[in-house]
Amino acid sequence: MDIRSLRYFMIVYECGSISAAARRCHVAQPSISAAIQQLEERLGAALFERHRKGVSATEEGHRLYPLAMRLNDDMHAIQGLFRHSPPPTPVRLGLMRSLGANRMTRLLKDYIAAGDNLALSLVNPEEPCDARIIDRQDLEPHEGFQPVWHDTYLLALPNGHPLTLKDKVALDDLADLPFIWRHPCTAMTKLAEAMREAGIHCQVRARLRTIEYTQGLVAAGVGAALVPGWPEILASHDFSCRFLKAPPIEETIGIAYPLRHAIPALQPLLQLGEALWKTHQPDHSSS
What we know:
Elements: H1 3-15, H2 18-25, H3 29-43, E1 48-51, E2 54-57, H4 59-82, E3 89-95, H5 101-114, E4 118-123, E5 131-135, E6 143-158, E7 168-169, E8 178-182, H6 186-198, E9 203-208, H7 211-219, E10 225-228, H8 231-234, E11 239-244, E12 250-258, H9 267-279
Parallel strand pairs: 3-4, 3-5, 7-11, 8-9
Antiparallel strand pairs: 1-2, 5-12, 6-10, 6-11, 6-12
Helix pairs in contact: 1-2, 1-3, 1-4, 2-3, 2-9, 5-9
């Protein structure tokens, strides 16, 4: 059993697709498949179930993942213990709110692992920084843009709310609806503009900054809220999500970087962003 095979296993586990994992690792798909097959033969257990849309971890795969993560972290720690590196390269990365803790954690972890001795500092996107992760519409003229994620927003409703009986909620249904408002949030600004044009007013019961608190208040029955359709949100049983009939409220989130004089240390981040963007586009190739 080698570390590379375990690393490929972890990437396939996270991507849910061998072809997506190959793009993320910048290797050929057969290399990923062969590594997984060798690992399964060595362990005497199937780690994934193959299907048309990709792969799903078996019970054995779910058991192996945290162990592989721990071993991978230990290997990085051992390498760092005996590596005499030059001073780290400082990178200031501006992050907009509401990026999603799970996906940002994965991106930053991969960036630190792929970068060459980085000293990463996270700041607000309005502060001086080397690159920013923002909504495309906030891009400045002097910046390039690497898209990473495309978010579609839905209406989150307390379980049992009458509007959950509808497949889609009309803008008129928001009239006088108890609502949890998030600010700053580009999607909320778009919804406010649509409601203002339609002459619709809701009842603002709370004003928050974070999606996590917003979800908690929706689950408690305080009001409805606009939330991004992240997998962890759609999988929640604490509240129900419905699409709006209004024009879709969407955001393209990506990495904004200087068109001139971008620091070389940003290159691994841009490559990771490109791989993630391709991963979430329609994939018709074999998995």
